[in-house]
Amino acid sequence: MRLSSYIIPTKVDNDKYLLVHGYTGAVDLVDSAVAECLSVYANVDVPEAAFDENIKTTLMSRGYLTEKSIQEEYDYVSRMADLLHRKSMLSFAGFTFVVTYDCNFRCPYCFERESVCSRLGGRSMTREVVDAAYKAIDAVNKSRLRPSRYITLFGGEPLLKENLAIVEYIVGKGVEQGFKFRAITNSYDLNYFAHLLSNDKINSVQTTIDGMAEMHNSKRVHRDGVPTFYRIIENMKIALDKGIEVGVRFNTDKSNFQEMVALKQYLNELGYADTGRLVFDSARLINHEDNKLDESFFTQKEFVKEHAKNKFEYGCKDFGTYSKLYKAISTGKPLPYKASFCGAQHGSLVFDPFYRIYPCWEVIGEKEHETGYYKDGAIVWNEENLSRWNNSFVSNIPECQGCKCALLCGGGCPAHSFNRHHCTCMADLIHAAAQRLYKNEILK
Ligand code: SF4
Ligand code: SF4
Ligand code: SF4
Q: Residue 360's closest CA among 375, 346, 349?
């Protein structure tokens, strides 16, 4: 009998630990005495008499103590990962339309800067492209166990006033077929689309605000040099008044972290939070320029630490970790696991105006990531690129093999990791979520 290599312990109080298991589905609050006794046996066999019989039986049934060797546990997790990934490949599909490569903003950190400003700039979907995309979606949905009736509108900027007619066409045709939509939009022209914002059409929008007016205007720059902050704030109200969800994404780096506090307070004062439909998310800004970090950017570790200092009141992007732990504890059901990080690895299709398909919106316009071509009701797959994305799950990422958090993490964002692996620091996110959960839910 030995200690499982897949225990993720978090000290949540002077005399309590929350134990999370990396493959059995277990989450348990235990006394420090038990956790500390377990840690004593980290690298040695656990003597039969180490624990009281009842405690030992419980620890075994939850997987914290195991008869499996290190290698057997590792092999078990690999097999689980392969099965989980195969299941996702069969069941999941997600659809995104790149309505246009054009954008009315010129944000300095834009990962699409090249395509928006020059190479692909200006090209929008036409009715023919939209019709072909819907046919392709129909074919894909028929091959999946769980057909999706949801489409994300993306760009460039998908809701440009110049594109109102094609967006009306996309939404009208989609609604006839039972689709609903969300838009990732800078919201500058959102007022022109008010009639399409409703629970049965575009039922959520995600917009980016990067600080209070001055800071935001320096980061979310209109191509004509006009300020953007107050217009976005006004347009958010239109969306909230239409009864739909508005997500605020705050792209966080070292220059604007503190403005998040002021922004959240400002939105509260405007009564936006009172609607219950405002969702606030802080996302770590990544340097897309050279795929490296420089001093103004947070590392993932620094990002989590900074949020921890602020007691996680500002929507730290934790990839669903808190909600998974919360559900497991509140329902008594096992933790859900996954072998890949996101849909791009097992079924997301992003359709662009050139009849091209990509797995993820962060790689649109990049030839080496094009996974297919859709026209005349058929999809022609680029098998090589497709298989590179489909195989980018934890079993095939050397840095993730053997990671005790692998099935809770999925191996991190592949778009950022093909050249150099970017770890999500999942253990830190689990520790942070466990501490918050203990304080917010268990002690309550
Ligand atoms: S709004 Fe989006 S697409 Fe447009 S420049 Fe900014 S980041 Fe790029
Ligand atoms: S990205 Fe990091 S935390 Fe996630 S599975 Fe890989 S090594 Fe583990
Ligand atoms: S590959 Fe990365 S950027 Fe693309 S959808 Fe997945 S998590 Fe998002």
A: 349
Q: Is the pLDDT of residue 291 over 70?
A: no
Q: Calculate how far, in angstroms, residue 208's C-alpha sits from the geometric centre of ligand 1.
A: 10
Question: What pLDDT is attached to residue 113?
Answer: 66
- Distance separating alpha carbons of residues 395 and 375, to the nearest angstrom: 34
CB-ligand 2 contact for 407 (6 Å cutoff) = no
Residue 112 scores a pLDDT above 70: yes
The per-residue pLDDT for range 83-107, each reduced to its tens digit, is: 999 999 888 789 999 999 999 999 9
Q: With a 6 A CB cut-off, is 409 part of the ligand 2 pocket?
A: yes
What stretch(es) of the chain map to CATH 3.20.20.70?
A: 86-390
Q: 388-436: per-residue pLDDT in tens?
A: 999 999 999 999 998 999 999 999 999 888 777 888 999 999 998 999 8
CATH class of 86-390: alpha beta
Number of residues written out for the chain: 444
CA 218 to ligand 1 centroid distance, Å: 13
Q: Can you tell me the distance from the alpha carbon of 426 to that of 394, in angstroms, rounded to the nearest whole number? A: 13
Residue 241: CB atoms within 10 A of its CB come to 12
- Whether ligand 3 lies within 6 angstroms of the CB of 414 is answered as yes
Quote the CA–CA distance of 395 and 403 in Å, as a whole number: 10
Per DSSP, the chain holds a count of helices (H) and strands (E) of: 15, 15
pLDDT, tens only, 23-78: 999 999 998 888 887 777 677 777 777 778 888 899 999 999 999 999 999 999 99
Q: How far is CA 397 from CA 125, 330, 349, 410, 419, in A?
A: 36, 33, 22, 10, 12
CA angle 201, 202, 203 (to 5 degrees): 95
Using CB distances shorter than 6 Å, the residues near ligand 1 are: 103, 105-107, 110, 112, 116, 155-157, 186
Q: Which residues pair with 205 in a beta bridge?
A: 183, 246
Structure tokens at 207: 């917009």
